[in-house]
Design a protein that fits this description.
The chain is mainly alpha-helical and 218 residues long. 66% of the residues lie in helices and 3% in strands. The chain has a two-stranded antiparallel ribbon with strand order 1-2. A hairpin with a 2-residue loop joins strand 1 and strand 2. Helix 1 packs antiparallel against helix 2 and helix 3 crosses helix 5.
């Protein structure tokens, strides 16, 4: 086992020695994630499908590290890359299913592009990796009701909190979300790009240094 894996092993032991949901475990886990992200051993690309698989794997790691990783069966990086590979394959299959459905829509509508597919998410995947756990907590808690109060007219269920949670956390397809909140893909497309994404981006820009070195000992 190389030096990095040995160091990660030490950090994992430290993390898992603290009770679940305790401030001590959260701090130790953040330290572990910083080391992992800065190690240079986790590949990052410009591929949206791979990046989505990567941040989902990182998010799952924050919840399952102490329960699912067994150090007696191999190094952490080998285990992590196996998890990432499986998640990547899941994302590839999901993307293919989306393309197949999209192609069917295009054929049905004589090549007209769904407006939602023109929406480009402005949230940087690496930034999400650094702040993901707190970002999800903010979406779930919405302490100022900023997201929940921002909804499609006459449809409070189609609000930014629900849309962000279902899309970014649960990972549902947009058509599923539209059916769940009782709206259309077109309405969601407009509301997501005009209202929700600016709110999410504002939070990320304000909190992007949350897990930075300046907070390490606080």
């Amino acid at each position: 086992m190389d030096d990095l894996n040995l160091y990660l092993q030490t950090l994992i032991q430290e993390t898992c020695s603290h009770p679940p949901d305790s401030p001590q475990r959260r701090k130790a886990l953040n330290s572990f994630l910083r080391v992992l992200l800065k190690s240079g051993r986790i590949q990052t690309t410009g591929d949206d499908v791979y990046e989505e698989a990567l941040y989902k794997t990182m998010f799952n790691l924050t919840k399952t590290l102490c329960d699912k990783y067994d150090p007696s069966r191999g190094s952490f990086l080998t285990w992590f890359k196996t998890c990432l590979r499986h998640q990547h394959m899941d994302e590839i299959r999901a993307a293919q299913r989306h393309r197949d459905r999209q192609q069917s829509v295009w054929q049905t509508n004589e090549g007209e592009l769904d407006p939602l597919d023109r929406v480009v998410a402005p949230i940087d995947a690496k930034l999400l990796l650094d702040t993901w756990e707190s970002f999800v907590q903010w979406i779930e808690d919405d302490p100022d009701h900023l997201l929940k109060d921002c909804h499609i007219e006459n449809n409070p269920k189609a609000n930014c909190q629900t849309l962000a949670y279902l899309r970014l956390v649960v990972g549902k397809e947009w058509q599923e979300i539209a059916a769940e909140v009782g709206s259309t893909r077109g309405a969601i497309s407009s509301h997501w790009s005009r209202k929700c994404q600016p709110l999410l981006q504002e939070w990320l820009e304000r909190n992007q240094r949350l897990f930075g070195e300046e907070n390490h000992d606080r």
